[in-house]
Design a protein that fits this description.
Order of helices and strands: HHEHEHHEHEHEHEEHHHEEHEH
CATH class of the largest domain: Alpha Beta
CATH topology of the largest domain: Aspartate Aminotransferase, domain 2
Strand order of the largest sheet: 1-7-6-5-4-2-3
Structural class: alpha/beta
Bound molecules: pyridoxal-5'-phosphate
Number of strands: 10
Radius of gyration: 20 Å
Distance between the termini: 29 Å
Length: 344
C-alpha cells in the first residue's frame, strides 16, 4: 500500500512541482510542436532567460544538474586539463566521476573550502603548484553558488576569484543548483553574480526551484558553446519533447516566480535557524545564507527524528543533519520538527 509522505526537509528536490510550472506543462500539451527544441516554448524560454540575464547568451536545456555540470566543464577543457573546485563541490562528491568521464579524463583539483567556498588563495595554490608538462594544466575554476553548505559568495568574493582567473588564464564555471537562492540572498540581479564578475558558463537549476526536472546551461562566453548541442545529444541529454522542459522555465520566469520561490525557501531556512537556536545541545554549523541549514546534534536526537519518520541527510560520525527548505515549505511543519526534537 502506498503511504503518503508528509512534508520533508531532506532536500529541495523532495518537493512538488509548483502550480504555475505545472500549468505551463498542461498549456504546452494543448497542441503539436516540433521536436528537439525547435518549438515555440523553447525559443521563448531562451529569450526570457536572455532578458533576465540582460545579455545575449547561448542557452541549452538539459534534464539534470550532473549533466549540466559535466558537459559544460567538458566544453571548457581538454582531457589533459584540470578543474579547480572545493572539497565539498557536488562535481567532486556527488557526480560519480561524470565531469572526468565527459571530459575524457580532465582532473579535478580539490581545494579546502572555507564554509563551502573556494578562496582565491586556494585557487592560486593549485594554479601555481606545477608548471611542468607532467601535471594536468589548470584550465577551469568551478564554484557553486549558493554552496553545498548553504553559504553564498558575495559579489566582492566573486570579483576576487575573477582576478585570480585572469591572472592564471582560467575559465569560471558556476554550478547554480541553487543559483536562485543566491540571487535572492544577495538581493541582486542575476547578471551581478555571473557574467559581470566573469562567469563563463552557468548551470542554472529549475528542479530545486519548483520544476519537475530541468536545468539550463547558459554560456555567457558564447565561443565556448561551439557544438554544445552535439555534446548534449551524444550524452543523451537532448530531450525530444523539449517543450515540456522549456515550458516549465516559462512558468518560473514569468512574474519572477523563480525569485519568489527562492525568497520563500531562504526565509524558511532562517525561520528554522531561529527555532533551532532556541534549543540547548544543538547548534548551527555554517552561516545560514540560502535555503540549507546544517545542524549539529546528538545521535539521540538524530535517532529520535528518524523514529518520528523525518527524512534528512546526516553525516555519519559527525552526528548532524542537513535540512533544506523549498518553495512550498510551511512554518507549521518546521514547528512540528522542532516539537519532535524537543519531545520524548
Ligand atoms: C542537486 C545538485 C546538483 C544537480 O544534481 P542532479 O541530481 O544531477 O540534478 C548539482 N550541484 C549541486 C550543488 C546540487 O545540490
Amino acid at each position: 500500500m502506498y503511504e503518503k509522505i508528509e512534508e520533508q526537509f531532506a532536500s529541495d528536490n523532495y518537493s512538488q512541482i509548483c502550480p504555475e510550472v505545472l500549468e505551463k506543462i498542461i498549456e504546452s500539451n494543448n497542441d503539436y510542436a516540433p521536436a528537439y527544441g525547435n518549438d515555440y516554448y523553447t525559443k521563448y524560454a531562451a529569450d526570457k532567460l536572455r532578458e533576465l540575464f540582460e545579455i545575449d547568451c547561448e542557452v541549452f536545456f538539459v534534464f539534470n544538474g550532473t549533466a549540466a555540470n559535466s558537459l559544460s566543464l567538458a566544453s571548457l577543457c581538454n582531457s589533459y586539463h584540470s578543474i579547480i573546485c572545493s572539497d565539498v563541490a557536488h562535481i567532486e562528491t556527488d557526480e560519480c566521476g561524470a565531469p572526468e568521464f565527459f571530459s575524457n579524463g580532465a582532473k579535478l583539483l580539490v581545494g579546502n573550502s572555507n564554509n563551502g567556498k573556494l578562496t582565491p588563495e586556494e585557487i592560486s595554490h593549485f594554479a601555481t603548484k606545477r608548471d611542468d608538462i607532467h601535471y594536468p594544466k589548470p584550465k577551469v575554476i568551478s564554484i557553486t553558488q549558493s554552496t553545498e553548505l548553504g553559504t553564498v559568495y558575495t559579489i566582492e568574493e566573486l570579483k576576487a576569484i575573477k582576478e585570480v582567473a585572469n591572472k592564471y588564464n582560467l575559465y569560471i564555471q558556476m554550478d547554480g543548483a541553487r543559483f536562485a537562492n543566491a540571487v535572492a540572498s544577495l538581493d541582486c540581479k542575476p547578471a551581478d553574480i555571473t557574467w559581470k564578475v566573469g562567469v563563463d558558463v552557468l548551470c542554472f537549476s529549475g528542479t530545486k526551484n519548483g520544476m519537475a526536472m530541468g536545468e539550463v546551461v547558459i554560456f555567457f562566453n558564447k565561443d565556448l558553446a561551439e557544438d554544445f548541442d552535439y555534446r548534449c545529444k551524444q550524452a543523451g541529454q537532448l530531450a525530444s519533447k523539449m517543450r515540456f522542459i522549456s515550458a516549465q522555465w516559462i512558468g518560473l520566469l514569468e512574474n519572477d516566480l523563480w525569485r519568489k520561490n527562492a525568497e520563500h525557501a531562504n526565509a524558511m531556512a532562517k525561520y528554522f535557524e531561529k527555532r533551532i537556536k532556541e534549543i540547548d545541545n544543538i547548534s548551527i554549523k555554517f552561516p545560514v545564507e540560502s535555503n540549507s541549514v546544517f545542524v549539529e546534534m546528538t545521535e539521540d536526537m538524530v535517532t529520535k527524528l528518524r523514529t518520528k519518520k523525518w527524512l534528512f541527510y546526516s553525516f555519519i560520525g559527525l552526528g548532524g543533519g542537513r535540512f533544506v527548505f523549498s518553495w512550498n515549505t510551511t512554518k507549521e511543519r518546521i514547528d512540528k520538527i522542532i516539537e519532535d526534537i524537543l519531545g520524548k
